[in-house]
Protein backbone atom coordinates (compact mmCIF):
# COMPACT_ATOMS: atom_id res chain seq x y z
CA UNK A 1 0.00 0.00 0.00
CA UNK A 2 2.85 2.36 0.82
CA UNK A 3 4.41 1.61 -2.59
CA UNK A 4 1.22 2.70 -4.36
CA UNK A 5 1.08 5.90 -2.35
CA UNK A 6 4.71 6.68 -3.19
CA UNK A 7 4.11 5.99 -6.89
CA UNK A 8 1.03 8.18 -6.90
CA UNK A 9 2.98 10.99 -5.19
CA UNK A 10 5.79 10.71 -7.75
CA UNK A 11 3.29 10.84 -10.60
CA UNK A 12 1.66 13.93 -9.10
CA UNK A 13 5.05 15.68 -8.95
CA UNK A 14 5.79 14.74 -12.54
CA UNK A 15 8.52 12.36 -11.46
CA UNK A 16 7.57 9.61 -13.87
CA UNK A 17 8.48 11.69 -16.89
CA UNK A 18 12.08 12.11 -15.77
CA UNK A 19 14.97 10.09 -17.07
CA UNK A 20 15.10 6.80 -15.23
CA UNK A 21 18.40 5.49 -16.53
CA UNK A 22 21.79 7.02 -15.96
CA UNK A 23 24.09 7.99 -18.81
CA UNK A 24 27.11 6.88 -16.78
CA UNK A 25 29.08 4.19 -18.64
CA UNK A 26 29.70 1.41 -16.17
CA UNK A 27 31.97 -1.48 -17.08
CA UNK A 28 31.93 -4.35 -14.60
CA UNK A 29 35.30 -5.72 -13.53
CA UNK A 30 36.60 -8.63 -15.57
CA UNK A 31 35.38 -12.02 -14.41
CA UNK A 32 38.33 -14.40 -13.91
CA UNK A 33 36.01 -17.43 -13.96
CA UNK A 34 34.77 -16.55 -17.45
CA UNK A 35 38.34 -16.22 -18.71
CA UNK A 36 39.15 -19.73 -17.46
CA UNK A 37 36.34 -21.38 -19.45
CA UNK A 38 37.18 -24.90 -20.57
CA UNK A 39 38.41 -25.24 -24.15
CA UNK A 40 36.14 -26.52 -26.89
CA UNK A 41 35.85 -30.29 -27.01
CA UNK A 42 37.44 -32.17 -29.88
CA UNK A 43 35.00 -33.30 -32.57
CA UNK A 44 33.58 -36.74 -31.89
CA UNK A 45 30.47 -38.71 -32.72
CA UNK A 46 29.16 -38.25 -29.16
CA UNK A 47 27.15 -35.07 -28.47
CA UNK A 48 26.22 -33.50 -25.15
CA UNK A 49 22.73 -31.98 -25.20
CA UNK A 50 21.73 -29.55 -22.43
CA UNK A 51 18.65 -27.50 -21.64
CA UNK A 52 16.24 -30.41 -21.99
CA UNK A 53 12.70 -30.21 -20.67
CA UNK A 54 12.03 -32.39 -17.62
CA UNK A 55 9.48 -34.34 -19.67
CA UNK A 56 11.79 -35.04 -22.62
CA UNK A 57 12.25 -38.76 -23.20
CA UNK A 58 15.05 -40.76 -24.80
CA UNK A 59 12.77 -41.58 -27.74
CA UNK A 60 11.94 -37.90 -28.22
CA UNK A 61 15.63 -36.98 -28.18
CA UNK A 62 16.45 -39.74 -30.67
CA UNK A 63 13.62 -38.68 -32.98
CA UNK A 64 14.65 -35.01 -32.95
CA UNK A 65 18.30 -35.74 -33.77
CA UNK A 66 17.61 -38.50 -36.31
CA UNK A 67 16.64 -35.82 -38.85
CA UNK A 68 20.36 -35.04 -39.27
CA UNK A 69 21.83 -38.53 -39.54
CA UNK A 70 21.79 -42.07 -38.22
CA UNK A 71 21.63 -42.02 -34.42
CA UNK A 72 23.54 -44.97 -32.97
CA UNK A 73 22.55 -44.22 -29.37
CA UNK A 74 20.55 -41.58 -27.49
CA UNK A 75 20.05 -41.24 -23.76
CA UNK A 76 18.35 -38.69 -21.52
CA UNK A 77 19.90 -38.74 -18.05
CA UNK A 78 17.10 -39.15 -15.52
CA UNK A 79 16.62 -38.90 -11.79
CA UNK A 80 16.52 -42.48 -10.48
CA UNK A 81 13.84 -41.67 -7.90
CA UNK A 82 11.32 -39.67 -9.94
CA UNK A 83 12.25 -40.73 -13.47
CA UNK A 84 12.23 -37.17 -14.83
CA UNK A 85 15.00 -35.79 -17.01
CA UNK A 86 17.88 -34.07 -15.25
CA UNK A 87 17.96 -31.60 -18.13
CA UNK A 88 20.74 -33.12 -20.22
CA UNK A 89 21.50 -36.14 -22.34
CA UNK A 90 23.79 -37.65 -24.95
CA UNK A 91 23.38 -38.50 -28.62
CA UNK A 92 25.87 -40.65 -30.54
CA UNK A 93 25.96 -40.59 -34.35
CA UNK A 94 27.66 -43.11 -36.61
CA UNK A 95 29.95 -40.55 -38.33
CA UNK A 96 31.62 -37.24 -37.50
CA UNK A 97 29.86 -35.50 -40.40
CA UNK A 98 26.45 -36.52 -39.07
CA UNK A 99 27.42 -35.32 -35.59
CA UNK A 100 28.45 -31.93 -37.02
CA UNK A 101 25.11 -31.71 -38.85
CA UNK A 102 23.29 -32.61 -35.63
CA UNK A 103 24.98 -29.77 -33.78
CA UNK A 104 24.33 -27.32 -36.59
CA UNK A 105 20.71 -28.41 -36.88
CA UNK A 106 19.72 -28.58 -33.21
CA UNK A 107 21.94 -26.14 -31.28
CA UNK A 108 19.75 -23.28 -30.08
CA UNK A 109 16.53 -24.88 -31.35
CA UNK A 110 13.35 -25.75 -29.47
CA UNK A 111 12.62 -29.27 -28.26
CA UNK A 112 9.48 -29.86 -26.19
CA UNK A 113 9.10 -26.11 -25.71
CA UNK A 114 12.63 -25.49 -24.38
CA UNK A 115 15.72 -24.14 -26.14
CA UNK A 116 18.38 -26.84 -26.19
CA UNK A 117 22.12 -26.67 -26.76
CA UNK A 118 24.16 -29.33 -28.53
CA UNK A 119 27.95 -29.59 -28.47
CA UNK A 120 30.63 -32.24 -28.72
CA UNK A 121 30.83 -34.23 -25.49
CA UNK A 122 33.98 -33.89 -23.44
CA UNK A 123 35.57 -36.99 -21.91
CA UNK A 124 34.67 -37.52 -18.28
CA UNK A 125 37.32 -36.25 -15.86
CA UNK A 126 38.62 -38.87 -13.43
CA UNK A 127 37.25 -38.44 -9.92
CA UNK A 128 39.74 -38.28 -7.05
CA UNK A 129 39.52 -41.12 -4.54
CA UNK A 130 37.64 -40.28 -1.32
CA UNK A 131 39.71 -38.27 1.13
CA UNK A 132 42.09 -36.78 -1.46
CA UNK A 133 40.04 -33.64 -2.13
CA UNK A 134 40.95 -31.99 1.15
CA UNK A 135 37.94 -33.31 3.05
CA UNK A 136 38.42 -35.93 5.72
CA UNK A 137 37.37 -39.42 4.70
CA UNK A 138 33.88 -40.42 5.75
CA UNK A 139 33.72 -42.73 8.75
CA UNK A 140 33.07 -46.38 8.05
CA UNK A 141 30.41 -48.01 10.15
From TrEMBL:
GO terms for molecular function: RNA binding. Residues 45-123 form the RRM domain. InterPro entries: Nucleotide-bd_a/b_plait_sf, RBD_domain_sf, RRM_dom. Pfam families: RRM_1 (PF00076). Residues 126-141 have a biased composition (Pro residues). Residues 121-141 are annotated as: Disordered. Keywords: RNA-binding. This is RRM domain-containing protein. It comes from Stephania cephalantha.
Amino acid sequence: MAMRAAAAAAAARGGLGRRVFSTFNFAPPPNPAAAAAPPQAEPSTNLFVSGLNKRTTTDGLREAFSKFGEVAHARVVTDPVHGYSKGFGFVRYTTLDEAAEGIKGMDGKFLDGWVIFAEYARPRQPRPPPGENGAPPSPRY
